[in-house]
Design a protein that fits this description.
With 460 residues, the chain is α/β, with parallel strands linked by helices. It is built from 14 helices and 17 strands. A 6-stranded mixed sheet has the order 1-14-13-17-15-16. A 4-stranded antiparallel sheet has the order 2-8-7-4, with no helix packed on it. Strand 7 and strand 8 form a beta hairpin. It is globular and about 65 Å long. The protein binds iron/sulfur cluster (2 copies). One iron/sulfur cluster binds next to helix 10 and helix 11.
Length: 460
């Protein structure tokens, strides 16, 4: 099949997929787990257990706190020791349920066997309910509740394409790659379930051409399963290929408008790990209490690079220590990839559903160039996959011109870092554009709230 890619901007950072050949290992469960109530986009979950309660693995311990929210389940069996705020990886205090682990006794009705269940159920409502009840959220970074995304609001256009994102375009990360190699059929069955829920759009399994083995393995598994209306779509390697809007543009040649959702152009995008979680939820009634993360970085030898299946609630320090400890050369530890990831301020933070890496970077890799004046070379604009003008946004931000920032669509920035990567003047474009976006989004939200309140008054 012809390789494709998105047409605006993008950059080609070195792959650095140093853990690509390391099979997924299952981490042993530590003595204590700390389960965050804010593991998803939307309202935090509300605990439904009390201190002293006995819980089993996979049992619901928190329920959705709003329409956009998700169930949270116990990652092991044991006793609830505390329910209290605890610092997340950015150092923000977030409610956590602390569980003193006593074993791994699963709750009733969960299939923990390895048996593959390929037959797709007929009942769409049942499948959606299971995805919701199992707390499945998008594992490509956004952690948006999957049952909401698979059930577009009434009046939305019909889904014409389901894009399963296996691009994993961020350097260093290999968890999706390993999952594709080791569990291709569950991913494809999960994709087929979502296809059915959405009414049968064509499904594209999107994989960059720097992962030829994954393209091959997924293609063979697809042939064996015999799913029609589903194809493996190879993509030309280019960052940020895995961005939702970039993937839609590459495959469907459609542009998602400013502030619009993918469904507005008939697209639904889900990550390969989410497809795997959907398979486990629907076919096994198994809640999302595990995921795969990569322990990697340019200061680790090959034998210390790992892909681990972890349970939510494991302290990152525990994972780091199991993997051999934090290398002394690590100047920065990042959660996520080097382009879009966030620096970990608190290594005692607990792993969450969306955790994808512990990335150790050397000082020489993280060092920023000394900032100098913009030379108007235009490289940042050429690299921006959203068609923005980062040099201009930077200038407007420094001038405090929020109206102009909004007019120049700073809110469309996907925080990919292509501008920063391209700038020869070492200008912290990503940091500044991110801050500018935060300011403008705050203004847009306040305006929407005021309009809603005014409409409420008018209707009285
Ligand atoms: S971080 Fe934002 S402004 Fe910079 S290249 Fe990416 S989308 Fe464009
Ligand atoms: S890449 Fe840097 S130096 Fe070039 S125009 Fe953009 S901000 Fe200016």
């Amino acid at each position: 099949m012809k390789k494709i890619t998105f047409s605006i901007g993008g950059v080609h950072p070195n792959d650095c997929k140093l853990a690509a050949d390391r099979p997924i290992e299952v981490l042993p469960i530590p003595e204590t787990l700390y389960v965050s109530m804010a593991q998803h986009l939307g309202a935090p979950a509300k605990p439904v257990v009390s201190v002293g309660d006995k819980v089993k693995t996979g049992q619901v311990i928190a329920e959705p706190g709003g329409f956009i929210s998700a169930f949270v389940h116990s990652p092991a069996s044991g006793t609830v020791k505390s329910i209290a705020p605890r610092a997340d990886l950015a150092g923000r205090m977030v409610p956590h349920i602390e569980i003193a682990v006593e074993g791994d006794e699963w709750a009733e009705g969960i299939d923990t066997s390895d048996a593959l269940i390929a037959e797709i159920p007929e009942d769409r409502a049942m499948m959606l309910e299971r995805i919701k009840n199992c707390g499945v959220v998008g594992l490509g970074g956004a952690t948006f509740p999957t049952h909401v995304k698979l059930n577009p609001a009434p009046g939305s256009p019909a889904a014409e394409a389901l894009l399963i994102n296996g691009a994993e375009c961020e350097p260093f990360l290999t968890s999706d790659y390993r999952l594709m190699l080791e569990s291709p059929k569950p991913i494809l069955i999960g994709a087929s379930i979502m296809q059915k829920i959405l009414g049968g759009p064509k499904c594209y399994i999107c994989i960059e051409d720097n992962k030829p083995q994954a393209i091959k393995v997924m293609g063979e598994a697809l042939e064996e399963l015999g799913f029609s209306n589903m194809v493996v779509q190879p993509l030309l390697k280019k960052y940020p290929q895995g961005g939702e809007k970039q993937l839609i543009q590459a495959v469907m040649r459609r542009e998602v408008g400013s502030g619009a959702l993918p469904i507005s152009v008939g697209a639904v995008v889900q990550n390969v790990s989410t497809a795997f979680a959907v398979y486990e939820a629907v076919q096994k009634n198994k809640p999302l209490i595990t995921n795969v993360l990569t322990v990697t970085g340019d200061c680790l030898p090959v034998e210390k690079q790992h892909n681990y299946r972890f349970r939510i609630g494991m302290p990152l320090s525990y994972i780091a220590s199991y993997a051999g400890g934090i290398p002394t050369e690590a100047a920065k530890i990042v959660s996520g990839g080097p382009m879009m990831g966030r620096a970990i301020a608190n290594i005692e933070a607990a792993a969450v559903k969306g955790s994808s890496s512990l990335l150790y970077l050397k000082e020489s890799t993280t060092r920023r160039w000394t900032e100098s004046a913009c030379i108007r070379c235009g490289r940042c604009s050429e690299a921006c996959p959203m068609g923005l003008e980062p040099f201009l946004l930077n200038r407007l931000y420094k001038g405090g011109l929020t109206d102009e920032l909004e007019k120049n669509a700073v809110q469309d920035c996907i925080e990919c870092g292509c501008c920063l990567y391209s700038c020869p003047a070492g200008i912290p474009l990503l940091d500044n554009v991110r801050q500018a976006k935060l300011q403008v989004m705050g203004i847009i939200r306040a305006r929407a709230a005021a309009a809603k309140a005014a409409a409420g008054q008018a209707n009285k």
